[in-house]
């Protein structure tokens, strides 16, 4: 209620200017409007409030807060913070108009596919399209120049080349051994005559004087004649490697005069195993004249390594043994 002297109390003054009493009290505490003894003069109240509105509008335009920016562009305070980081704008140094214009431009760029993540996606799609067009034009050029080959024609040739490469690589060691040392193995007689237990038992790695008779080592595998499966070789590989380390260099070589009885006992063959009279069924030697006579038993030959060569024949898979101390004349097959 206005007093007799024309002054208004807080509630009456707030209703007079159309704001809340708390807001008017805050303005009075800040010095925006004058207050005398807790009451307001109507004329000075209106003047102070109008001046406050003008200065506040200028302040918001010049140095807006994030809350005021959010109210202006209809965003939350957190969204305004992310927007300012994205636009690289400091609200303490930029006006509200500048922030509003930058926000509108960003919206336009995003809508046109030139801003934000859409810009990177658009650039990537354009790059892929350009590469696809270039590849298609290149294929069309090759087709017109008749430089393309049909898959149906190319596949048989590639298969043939692959088979040739495999055979060349597989026979490379054998050919080198034949050309350098002049030795070759008769694999068929060895595989057909030597039982599987010769591969698994240590008696094959020791001379007859150290191992005893062949019947001592015979077992369930003694009747087999084919090579063992790969899993079996994997299982016995550590044992075989340990046994090979215990064999001395001199035991790996046959005597200078390999007799028939020595071959039978050394390889644990039946008596009919050496059925070629006076001949060794294990190794053949290439002569310089092109003939390939068998090595006669009883001949003096220091280049014969029957034992080592036979062991390598029984293990045609490369890498099964590592015997750096073997004589080079044995060759690797």
TrEMBL record:
This is Uncharacterized protein. It comes from the Bacteria. The lineage of its organism: Bacteria, Pseudomonadati, Pseudomonadota, Gammaproteobacteria, Candidatus Kentrum. It comes from Candidatus Kentrum sp. FM.
